[in-house]
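We modelled the chain as a single entity of 175 amino acids. Its sequence is:
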Amino acid sequence: MYKTLLVALAASAFSIGAVAAAPAVRKEPLDAASLSAIKSRFGRLMELANNHDFKALHGMFWQSPSTLLVAKSAIQSEGNWAGFWGNEAVDQKLHDIGSSGPVVLEPDYSKFKVVGLTRDVAESYVPMNIAVSYAGQDGTARPFLMIINWLRVGKDWKVASEIILPVPPVPATKG
């Protein structure tokens, strides 16, 4: 009897501890208007990129040495893909890519997703095709993923980091 009571008490304590330790369901930190504003800013970013409007693109980014763009590198010592930190480096990289020839970004808006991380930080994700003739690329549209961290600055949303990742080809099946 004593053993059964001890097991029951231990089981009860463990279950109460598990319930107390379970993460609380959290409410989305951003309202629908904020999420809509970010989606609109993303559309504007794509429009400016496709039009090679470097001055306006500069204004889309957070003005900070911590601003980050991850993109294809043309310089061997940087590796094939690299991080470019700060507005001057981001501006130069966007100018180099956009001046290399036609650049066309085609996001799959049906898969575009924005989530609020905090009241002032959000993240967006979208697969897209990018056609570009930069750093050995031949201008053929290829699949990429674009992940953007957005930062609320005053009443506006700015790009704090933009990570562009190539999607590797599907491996050939054996047999």
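As a brief sanity check on the tokenised model: The mean pLDDT is 85. The chain has four helices and seven strands.
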